Amino acid sequence: MMKMTKKINTDGLSAAVYSMLLMSIFFFSCTKIPQNVGKTREIIVVSSKVDTNLIIKNLQLYNYVPQKEGLFKFICISDSAIEKYDKFHTIFLYGSLEDEFINLLLNRDAKKATEKDTFTLFKLNDLWAKGQLAIILVTARPEYIQPGIEKYKELLVKILEENYYSRIKENYYTKHFDKQLKKSLKRFGIVFDLDKQWLIDSTYKNENFIFVHAHFPDRSIFFYKEKLNGELTKAFAVAKRNSLTGKYYDGDYILEELTDIEKIEFKNMKGIRMKGVWQNDSLVAGGPFLSYFLTHRDTLYVIDGLLFNPGERKSEYFTTLEVILNSFELVE
User: Fold this and answer.
1) Contact status, residue 36 vs residue 310, Cβ threshold 8 Å
2) Which of 27, 168, 207, 187 has the alpha carbon at shortest distance from 104?
3) Is 14 a residue whose pLDDT tops 50?
4) 10: part of which helix (H) or strand (E)?
5) Which of 92, 147, 205, 266 has a 20 to 30 A CA-CA distance from 234?
6) Domain locations in the chain?
């Protein structure tokens, strides 16, 4: 049985509303719940009549790596099959108050809220399995299901993407990290949480450029710093990365049409984040990359990770690379 603890406002997707939008519902069980199952990218979608095209059109995210690659794998099932899939780590259930399985999930207050507001959205943790995320979208009538998914698609995608990243991060931090490598990196003014497959190359340390690399698949992270003269702009960041990778990575350059560039504030530093695709014509190679250009006092720091894994799926490796980059700490 679920218990609703507060009424929600479902208008808009502002930051203020987002924090209010998700009802807190708690599932009480007298038995110990099992561990969740399933691969990181798998999402179970449950409805009385699942519209796979509607789900993919509104909830799928794509990485360009450089080929277009879907982030999630949606496994769409009828509500009658839920018992076979209720231990999966991520479940999205949707339907109307006319669906029996929805009525079994909601208490009286939740049903009244849906009748009044047309749509309600619920986010639950540990519903049928430990560490599980369950999202439930409920509409007053069946004809409101598509408008409901379209209304909340940005929020739903945000929840699913953050959940995906969290699971990749959780899996990564079960590894054993290389303390000696961390100690070596510290001498150059930065540390990362790196496991024992990574190697350091300090050939260009006198030019303030060092990198670490790992294989199977090929991954590389470089760190560079210089005195910042003038303003950090998006055009400068693109040109600077191209000059660094052109020199130290045998001619790599950014495909700007497949790269997102945004201003950020990260770890108390302002800067620019670039996420996109690199290419190397002479090596006939390419793949995804992530760069942080960050300023601290009068110094520019560049932290960059890239992946090369031709012919294979890349998103999970690339997200793990993002987890590693996000672990960085400057050492003064």
Assistant:
1) no
2) 27
3) no
4) none
5) 205
6) 2-172, 179-330
